[in-house]
């Protein structure tokens, strides 16, 4: 059997709950089928509940405190002066930065293995104008978000606006890549912007929106807004608004599902379905009313670490390579992807830092399965000074903004409604987990990037952190309650 192809599909702001098999209201037949035919991970976590840090951790296996990206990248995506006309004005003053410079990554591992590599979709790890070394084809979003109907993208070296539905455009390019390379091993990365905002209905396909005309949207009933809700996301503060936004969010996911179906069909049409591994994940979780929050980790300030923010969908499909119909309950995370890839490819770590990463290979879960393992160290999340460690039963959150630490017994309280931080009955295990959290961040952080010394607001990172400058975060903190008062 020749070297298998790899297709990695990543969505933007899709919580683990946002699949048809978890929330039957959502129409995702292709993803549900992929899960049924492959390996489905029920407890999979991001490394930070916001896009750019999470994506950099997927790529490098490092915590944000070891790669230096702690908020979504407001700056460093492109060099505005290099862009023509309207695009140049939109990105005026921005200067491209390679935030991953010098850090071995999944992309380096795949290049080393000899794959032809293509990227279609959202990069948002700095410098979208220049293809990351090893990529043969590079069709990417210029920034981190876009209008679904008028995305700004780099195509074949040319930055431009498109009058196309962005999800369909990315699918078209992915299918074209597969059709053009049926006989050489390839690694195709399809990074959809969906289901990120905007969710306004004029942004999405009317035929898909119509599928939800009779949906009751009962999955997450209306709740009073969280007192720390900020205005970084569209907010369903009334029942009518809640249903409107959910309809747009669901439609964005169903459009991705349709795209996944087309990608799978392209593999079958080219005779590649028996020699390709397909991985699907979200970059971070998402709240659409859970806990009264709208948004991910930066839906509140201080940032939150609810499971709905940090758990993501994850599944691996590949006839002949992975188990069929398996469900993995062990705790796993994006920090495990690079070690798993190295294990699969038979490679050593790329540098001394990589040889001491917190993640570990889950290849055995894919190929033969293993019994229950209660890992904790790999389930580390951070968003600036807010840090989390989680076991199968317990979660400890160190909230370093104003000291609102949290501790949950997830066996008794899976919805994280009762904060047990002051309960003496849990003092022992709480102390153990707090010490373990401190030790882990001591072991796996680099001093220059240590997030405990930074102050991301959730409004974006403007540039790279250096020894001389840690003040690289947009200062705005705009609470939704204050916006409502003004209006």
Key attributes of the depicted protein:
alpha/beta, Alkaline Phosphatase, subunit A, 487 residues, single chain, 4-stranded antiparallel β-sheet
Major pleated sheet = 10 strands, mixed
Q: What is the count of β-strands?
A: 18
Based on the structure, what is the oligomeric state of the protein chains?
Answer: single chain
Provide the β-strand percentage band: 15-25%
How much helix is in the residues?
25-40%
Task: Please work out how many helical segments DSSP would assign.
Answer: 13
Morphology call = globular
Q: Give the termini separation.
A: 64 Å
CATH topology, by name, is: Alkaline Phosphatase, subunit A
Q: What's the architecture, going by CATH?
A: 3-Layer(aba) Sandwich
> Strand arrangement, largest sheet?
7-6-5-4-8-1-9-12-2-13
CATH superfamily: Alkaline Phosphatase, subunit A
Global structural class: alpha/beta
Please give the domain count.
Answer: 1
Question: Any overview of this molecule?
Answer:
The mean pLDDT is 95. A hairpin with a 6-residue loop joins strand 17 and strand 18. This protein has helices at residues 29-37, 51-60, 64-67, 85-90, 106-112, 166-180, 206-209, 239-269, 307-310, 337-345, 363-367, 427-444, 480-486; strands at 5-11, 39-41, 44-45, 116-121, 137-141, 152-155, 158-161, 186-191, 276-282, 287-288, 294-295, 314-317, 326-328, 332-333, 380-383, 386-390, 394-399, 406-409. Helix 6 (166-180) runs parallel beside helix 8. The protein has 487 residues and is of the alpha/beta class. The chain has one domain (5-375, 466-486): Alkaline Phosphatase, subunit A (3-Layer(aba) Sandwich). It contains 13 helices and 18 strands. It has a 10-stranded mixed sheet with strand order 7-6-5-4-8-1-9-12-2-13, with helices on both faces. Strands 15-16-17-18 form a 4-stranded antiparallel sheet, with helices on one face. A two-stranded parallel sheet has the order 3-14. The chain is globular and about 65 Å long.
